[in-house]
Design a protein that fits this description.
mainly alpha; two-stranded antiparallel ribbon; 78% helix
Length: 315
């Protein structure tokens, strides 16, 4: 297991290198002059040229990339021109709310996705299976931004049960209860599609496992049915489900961009939308790099968890 973990960590290094190349090129090759966008259409050519020099945008692309990567390795992601503060400080400050939102959404999707998939498989072709199948189909077909707006109109504006947006600080005046009130709607919005995908996949994996010989053998030996389902079958089904949980973690991080915008959640996603509007290049590069590195780390953890469930994967 230790050697597999080391190999998997070593593989993450070139992946991260590729991520830096893609992030840098995608942002750097966006058409238009960032300095002109920052200063406005009335800026003089001299002031535009001066800002381009300050931002290092007048240097060749490879030189800019090497300088950016070299600084990033030391923890220096540059300075946000619009906010006038280090990019790393801004990203770290916004990363906390995004992680809270993503963790809550992923926990909801794993909990309800696994429960729905197992219940649907155990009662295959019954009314429970058909009801859950219809709910999962509806969940995977509903655009998250539409669901978010619907929840705001219904539960916030209409019934007044939850705030329409924003985030309460964990150690603020409202405490954790107020934080949870602000968290419920964006977390549910972000979790619905991931729950539907995990539920459908869990159902398929469980149906496959329940037909295998070791499950029939366990039942023939008189093992309690609940134990057969929860221990023998579910553990084997999780080998196929765990990698998808890792992919859904990536979806949740990516989906945070529009959910944070809809609910005014002060995370990295909302920061990126605002930074793109201001053409704040270094902040966009730093934010995307942080999210991409987090996604790579989640995939490493997912692979290790899969290896724990099925030791044959280490080979």
């Amino acid at each position: 297991m230790r050697s597999y973990a080391l190999r998997r960590l070593a593989l993450a290094v070139p992946v991260l290198f590729g991520v830096t190349v893609v992030v840098f090129l995608v942002i750097a090759l966006v058409p238009g002059d960032p300095a002109l966008a920052i200063l406005g259409s009335y800026a003089t050519p001299e002031s535009v040229a001066r800002l381009n020099a300050e931002l290092g945008l007048d240097r060749p692309l490879p030189v800019r990339y090497l300088a950016w990567v070299g600084n990033a390795l030391t923890g220096d992601l540059g300075r946000s021109y619009a906010l006038d503060r280090p990019v790393l400080d801004e990203v770290l400050e916004r990363l906390g709310p995004t992680l809270i939102l993503a963790a809550a959404a992923l926990a909801l999707s794993v909990l309800f996705g696994l429960a729905a998939g197992v219940a649907s498989a155990v009662r295959q072709n019954g009314w429970v299976d058909r009801t859950i199948g219809l709910a999962l189909l509806l969940g995977v077909s509903t655009p998250s931004f539409f669901l978010g707006l619907l929840l705001i109109l219904w539960l916030s504006v209409g019934l007044g049960w939850f705030p329409t947006g924003g985030m309460s600080a964990l150690f603020g005046g409202g405490g954790i209860a107020d934080l949870l009130r602000h968290l419920v709607l964006p977390a549910v919005t972000l979790a619905v599609v991931a729950t539907a995908i995990l539920g459908r996949l869990t159902r398929a994996a469980m149906l496959d496992v329940l037909r295998q010989d070791f499950v029939r053998t366990a039942r023939a030996k008189g093992v309690d049915e609940d134990r057969v389902i929860s221990v023998h079958a579910l553990k084997s089904a999780l080998v196929a489900v765990v990698p998808v949980i890792g992919l859904q973690a990536g979806y949740v991080l990516g989906g945070a961009v529009y959910v944070e915008t809809v609910f005014q959640w002060p995370g990295v996603g909302r920061m990126l939308v605002e930074a793109v509007g201001r053409r704040d290049i270094l902040l966009v590069q730093g934010g995307v790099l942080a999210v991409a590195a987090l996604y790579v780390a989640i995939n490493v953890v997912t692979d290790l968890a899969q290896a724990v469930l099925d030791p044959r994967i280490e080979a």
